[in-house]
Amino acid sequence: MPIMSISLSKFAPIAIFASLFSLGNLITLDSANAYSVDFSNGDFQSSTSLDGPAGWTGTGSTDIGGTYSGVDFNGTNQGIITTACPSGNLTLCLNDRNDDPGTNTGTFNLRTQDQISASPEIAALQTQLGLSANDFSIQREIDGTPLVDTEGNPLYRLPKEGSAIFQDITITNDNNRNTQITFNWDFLTNDGAGSLGDKDFGFISLAKIDENTGQPDISFAPIVISLEDSTGSIPTASGNNYQTNTSPYAAFSDDYDLSTGQYRVGFGVIDVDGVGNSSALLIDEFLVEDVPFEFTPSTGIGLVLGLIGLKKLRHRFKK
Hints:
Blueprint: H1 12-29, E1 35-38, E2 57-59, E3 61-65, E4 78-82, E5 116-117, H2 124-129, E6 141-142, E7 145-146, E8 159-173, E9 179-189, E10 193-194, E11 197-198, E12 201-209, E13 223-229, E14 244-245, E15 250-256, E16 261-272, E17 279-290, H3 297-318
Helix pairs in contact: 1-3
């Protein structure tokens, strides 16, 4: 069989174009002006205000403070969110309601404000976070196994009420870089799991907000991620500390495809099924940034091709 001979010179123009295109992409992707994000007080140190101008807005039983229920991340301030009623007679917490029998009424409430309704019918908390009415109706689980009915349809939890902190962040993303969200969190609870599976849960939510109207941008599907659930038997509450600490300060990190715009990031905790036995979520070291540039094999090949292309052009100009 004759051996075919291919002249590499015929493909030189194509190789030069492809290599320069690869190098150009690398330079563009690494542009310092391609990505920026505007948010404040992610470590909860610059202000303890939850009134918005300092970064975070609180709704329900929320606070920024130091060690809580015997827990802190690094000995400094953290975001604190609970589902406990204060003492008194408020909108949801009627007739001095005590969420945690065995403790004094209001023990786990943070600022004499009751929780916000999270039921799909009212959805007051969902509205404040830019979410849809059913976004807290996550599937029921027992020991990590999703529950279904006799026909195989998912069974969903019934959110009752909750509290949250949130902040609007602004992202400029000209080159479609991925956005990385990181933070540290801890879920505390006096609740457990019932016959229908896990109940209370802590969450992070993400919604896009139309900067002109202040309303949710329907082109973006809101994200709600359950960080941890109340599981096991319901403990007997006593003292001033939560009885169960399921995940002592864990780290969260994930990447998202977020275009230029304004986004509302929320952290909170939801009472499910009943409203007794409160839970809490602690948050610290919240950070939003573009995904660091990685020198992968493919980018390495692109760089090599780019350098080869430049060398060939230089050789041609010298002739």
